[in-house]
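Retro notes (design track)

What went well: tokenization of the new backbones is finally stable.
What didn't: we kept losing track of which sequence belonged to which structure.
Fix going forward: every design gets posted as structure first, then sequence, in one message. First example under the new rule, 175 residues:
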């Protein structure tokens, strides 16, 4: 990968907006890989808000809730900035389909260094709150934490968003 950025943060921390601004500063192609599925009214509203923010901007949009590695192979290019929003929705899509999350994340982590261009991934940090009451919630929290560790290792930058402000956790030559 020419360059990889992982943007983490809590709900409404400014992750997507920050990642979109990074993409808009890119002079080449911009590819938005959306992993959300419009399964309920709240998610449909969130998807509509993301679409509204991108109106009038030159984005190629790829909707891929499960086969993320395949989508990245197809759309990453030297001149491209590929924005994946978001990893935690992708993880939940895998879990709901009873797919092997660990294998999918390992495939992604292995693929990323070989991709051309820039890849920026957005994900929710879900491990900072209370312990989820239900086993599925605890499993999701654990899978997300393991995925973040594995992907942060192969990315050039890791940013943590707080109140719309980026905190650099890992930068080239540091971390």
């Amino acid at each position: 990968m020419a360059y990889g950025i992982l943007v983490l943060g809590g709900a409404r921390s400014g992750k997507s907006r920050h990642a979109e601004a990074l993409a808009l500063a890119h002079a080449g192609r911009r590819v938005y890989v959306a992993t959300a599925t419009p399964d309920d009214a709240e998610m449909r509203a969130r998807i509509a808000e993301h679409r509204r923010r991108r109106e009038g901007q030159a984005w190629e949009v790829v909707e891929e809730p499960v086969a993320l590695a395949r989508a990245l192979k197809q759309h990453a290019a030297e001149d491209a900035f590929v924005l994946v929003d978001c990893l935690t929705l992708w993880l939940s899509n895998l879990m709901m389909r009873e797919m092997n999350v660990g294998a999918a994340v390992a495939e992604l982590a292995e693929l990323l260094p070989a991709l051309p261009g820039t890849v920026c991934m957005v994900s929710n940090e879900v491990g900072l709150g209370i312990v989820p009451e239900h086993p599925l919630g605890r499993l999701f929290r654990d899978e997300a934490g393991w995925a973040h560790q594995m992907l942060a290792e192969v990315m050039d930058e890791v940013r943590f968003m707080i109140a719309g402000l980026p905190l650099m956790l890992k930068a080239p030559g540091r971390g």
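Added context from the reviewer: Strands lie at 3-9, 29-34, 60-63, 80-85, 118-124, 157-162, 165-170.
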